[in-house]
Design brief:
InterPro entries: Poly_Biosynth_Transport, Polysacc_synth. This protein has 510 residues and is mainly alpha-helical. Helix content is 84%, strand content 0%. It has 21 helices and no strands.
Length: 510
């Protein structure tokens, strides 16, 4: 379990940042939904998608190349190439982002009016055009921080400063009477703030590349050779994650996009445990693979996947039963029609949790070609399914297409892991988690028929009680092993919070 201390330490830092970003993100999404309404929220969601698409192309995959080569050259002590990598990457991104910002500004009317018949969308896109260079350069600076192993600064900026500024600025604009335009301007200003602070942290805390006397050694070709496959993969990943909203707005209307975006935002809570625990799994299994420790690889794969599965199952079951109440309590009655989409999307995201860190396993054994292959297959499938299902079933069709595509994406990687390594993450303890979920869910069916859980405090209280009951039943079923207890002790050590009573309680059932 020594190696798992690395997982817990890294996951602990990232978990705090991820949790904070989720909290701020949901506050922001609720604020937008409550003040804009479905139609304007749909317009804003489509504009966000176009912005993300523009920034994706503008960065050319270079931020990841910057991160990779900074770490690579620093390990070899080649400071000239470290500076050359950072400066050249940013210079290229300045030029590319200016080009795509201009392209977005000039095509705003075509997208907003010709395609979606929404003049307001065109106005928002013209504002978002100014965000393209800001977002592109910020991404490069943040990924550079990763290359210098200063991830805490990235978390400060992306998860805290950027999110808080969006909320505060939009609140101020709303009080001044601006709604949709206020949302767009607040986003523009928050990116400007992020850029200023990112530059400050890189220059003052990470690497003073502007005034340093080190002569830069540029290698543009190496950066491009590394980054262009990442851009291709990013394109198909974008087709997987965002094409549903674009096509829903085209085939149905922007109000449907607003309702759908609420359902998807809630459903992504399924990925909380996954994103928190997977973060440093790759270096651990890579080390095991390099040393030929296949049994340790398998144990790590099974342990992390089982934790993710066990923590993701209760939210899925809770969403199935209380989807309408959850949407109404948090976002309002006008979004209630998205309850079926919420349930379907939650199931699709749960497949990611149930399969576990299969993509990390493939990268660990050097089979990265599967990343691009799977993304192309899933992204193409998502486009086809959305094209077929949305005109007939609306937001339910979009949810079905996206959930099926995510499931396909992850099941493919599970099969590939087994084909390449002979490993899978499953054992009999999963049966105990499923049994605990079924037993704990039974009372929910009873109380759901007796009370109307449309009150937010009541719904949250019920959710917490349900999770506690599930974990208690899992303990009684001996669903935890010695390795789980050791992982809990490491978590206590890393976060600095005493969990003595919890540790003693859990230890009795192992």
């Amino acid at each position: 379990m020594k190696d798992f201390s690395i997982i817990v330490k890294g996951a602990g830092i990232t978990f705090i940042g991820f949790l904070a970003s989720k909290v701020f993100g949901y506050i922001y999404s609720i604020l937008l939904a409550r003040t804009l309404g479905p139609e304007l929220l749909g317009i804003f969601s489509i504009a966000l998608g176009v912005l993300g698409f523009s920034i994706m192309f503008a960065n050319l995959g270079l931020p990841y190349a910057i991160s990779r080569y900074i770490a690579f050259y620093r390990s070899k002590g080649e400071e000239e190439k470290v500076k050359g990598t950072l400066v050249s990457g940013i210079l290229i991104n300045i030029v590319s982002s200016a080009f795509f910002a201009t392209l977005l500004y000039l095509s705003a009317d075509f997208i907003g009016i010709t395609i979606y018949n929404q003049p307001l969308l065109a106005d928002i896109l013209r504002i978002f055009a100014f965000i393209v260079p800001l977002g592109t350069i910020v991404t490069s600076l943040l990924l550079a921080m990763e290359g210098f192993k200063k991830i805490k600064y990235k978390i400060y900026i992306r998860n805290f400063i950027e999110n808080i500024s969006k909320i505060v600025l939009y609140g101020a604009f709303f009080l001044l009477g601006f709604t949709l335009m206020g949302a767009a301007l607040s986003l523009l200003l928050s990116y400007a703030i992020s850029l200023i602070i990112s530059f400050y942290f890189v220059q003052k805390k990470v690497y003073p590349f502007v005034r340093t006397k080190v002569k830069a050694d540029y290698d543009f070709r190496k950066l491009f050779n590394f980054s262009w496959p990442l851009l291709a993969a990013s394109f198909f990943a974008f087709m997987l994650t965002s094409i549903d909203s674009f096509m829903l707005g085209y085939f149905i209307d922007t109000a449907s996009v607003g309702v759908y975006s609420v359902a998807e935002t809630i459903a992504r809570l399924q990925l909380l445990a996954y994103n928190s625990l997977v973060v440093l799994f790759l270096p651990i299994v890579t080390g095991y693979f390099a040393l030929g420790k296949k049994q340790e690889m398998k144990q790590a794969f099974q342990l992390i996947t089982r934790w993710i599965f066990s923590l993701s199952l209760p939210p899925l079951l809770f969403f199935f039963i209380f989807a309408p109440q959850i949407i109404v309590a948090f976002y309002g009655q006008e979004y209630a029609s998205g309850f079926m989409a919420l349930s379907i999307l939650a199931l699709g995201f749960f497949v990611i949790a149930a399969v576990g860190p299969t993509q990390s396993m493939l990268r660990a054994v050097g089979k990265t070609k599967y990343d691009l292959i799977n993304t192309v297959i899933a992204g193409t499938t998502n486009i086809a399914l959305n094209w077929i299902l949305i005109p007939v079933y609306g937001i339910v069709g979009a949810a079905t297409a996206t959930a099926a595509s995510y499931a396909l994406w992850n099941l493919l990687s599970l099969v590939e892991v087994f084909f390449e390594t002979g490993m899978h993450p499953y054992n009999l303890n999963y049966v105990k988690s499923i049994a605990a979920g079924i037993i704990a869910t039974a009372p929910l069916f009873i109380v759901s028929g007796l009370f109307n859980f449309d009150s937010l405090p009541l719904l949250v209280g019920l959710g917490l009680a349900y999770m506690a009951l599930y974990l208690l039943i899992l303990l009684l079923l001996k669903g935890f092993e010695k390795e789980d207890f050791e992982l809990l002790l490491l978590f206590e050590k890393k976060i600095g919070i005493q969990l003595g009573f919890l540790n003693s309680f859990v230890e009795r059932f192992i």
